[in-house]
Amino acid sequence: MPVPSTMNSSTPLIEIFSSLQGEGVLAGYRQIFIRLPGCNLDCAYCDTSIEAPAVCRVETSPGSGQFQEIPQPVSLQTVLDIVHRWCKELPDAHHSISITGGEPLLHADLLAQWLPELNILLPIHLETNGTLPDAVARLIEHLDFICMDIKLPSAAATPELWEEHRRFLEAARERDVSVKVVVGELTADQELVTACKLVATIDDEIPLVIQPVTDRDGRVAVPAQRLMRLQALASRQLYDVRVLPQLHRFMEVL
């Protein structure tokens, strides 16, 4: 019986575009973003549409901000053609491909087929909420960078997910992993300390990014003095602690 070609694999996508990474330790690097629909959480501060649209938006050229619509579902071959064309058009401009969402690990079966092919063209950066440890373990050999969130209940308005995050980080530590925590005005010191202790039990050299909530008008919603206090608290547990707002919101890029 012939083996099905992964090139025929298709799925609905939200969008494909080229921009600067605005969050985490890779902030400032240019990436090709592939955004998948759906999420298993409903965070209070989420600013991303996660529903699968009737068509997929694709930039007409990398970084143009102009989009065309292509039919759903989108095939792997179509995505490979886009990434290859953009890499040829802008040689060495892109650091990596960012697989983002929503929560992309909901599509682990699909990514198991797609990532080996995409990884030939560029390194793979996974953006994830860090709650699906079994899924990341399946894909770990095809990932180069992992940026996982630790959801603080006060900021995200989610249930406590400490055990899911611990198991996820155990699996993700095989790659270049960093952790991001979004903090708001109601974030308690002890919540952040708990998150830092969790990371430190795995590896106290894993970078931690403290990301303040950005208001709808684009302003950082947490006072600078508060952020510096949180950074000082985190630094008692971890060696590499940074405070980074959402760069792309300030630059008004995708």
Please give a handful of descriptors for the protein shown.
single chain; 254 residues; alpha/beta; TIM Barrel; two-stranded antiparallel ribbon; 8 helices; 31% helix
Q: Would you write up a description of this structure?
A:
- The structure is a single chain.
- This protein is α/β, with parallel strands linked by helices and 254 residues long.
- The chain has a domain at 6-179: Aldolase class I (TIM Barrel, Alpha-Beta Barrel), CATH 3.20.20.
- It has eight helices and twelve strands.
- It has a ten-stranded mixed beta sheet with strand order 5-4-2-3-7-8-9-10-11-12. Strands 1-6 form a two-stranded antiparallel ribbon.
- Helix 3 (133-139) packs parallel to helix 5 (162-172).
- The longest helix is centred in the N-terminal third of the chain and has 14 residues, at 76-89.
- 36% of the residues are buried.
